[in-house]
Amino acid sequence: MVGTGTNSFYSALADSTDEPVLKEVCRRIAEDELAHYYLFFSYMRRYLENEGLTFCGRLRIAFARISETEDEELGSAYWAANRPGEHFERRPNSVAYARAALKYYHPAHARRMVEMIFGALGLNPSGLLGWMATRAARAFIWYRSRFIPRIEVLQSRMSDRLHRAAVIYQRSGTR
What we know:
Blueprint: H1 2-16, H2 20-51, H3 55-67, H4 72-82, H5 90-102, H6 107-121, H7 128-174
Helix pairs in contact: 1-2, 1-6, 4-5, 5-7, 6-7
């Protein structure tokens, strides 16, 4: 699942740039991640035969691995590269990372992610369920890259206004 996210990110980045060296480096990283995915896939098949993991078990593992994209690692990497000297806060940096990274994604990238995830789950990505999952992935990408940052800005503005109101109130009460 991690290779799926990395492959899609570098594919999206490669498709969005006109800089030839960056495009080539990103394509090579994406291809390398695809190779990792196929290596994982071959070992997964062997383990599935031996372990007898059910579809529900695989689905649970897939969701757990996908949810790891919301962890501190990406937000802290964004913070280290873009906001040194500031105090680290997970949520704003995670949102900032998502806004910066997901803007490069197109429908084809969401479709490819679903194809890879469905492959690991043993599902057909071409059917109705695959179409629905692709639509859900696209909605999630839109939500994380465009909607959540706007909410964060509104919350920040509201917090600033409440803070200013509290300061004014405290000043008026001490006179």
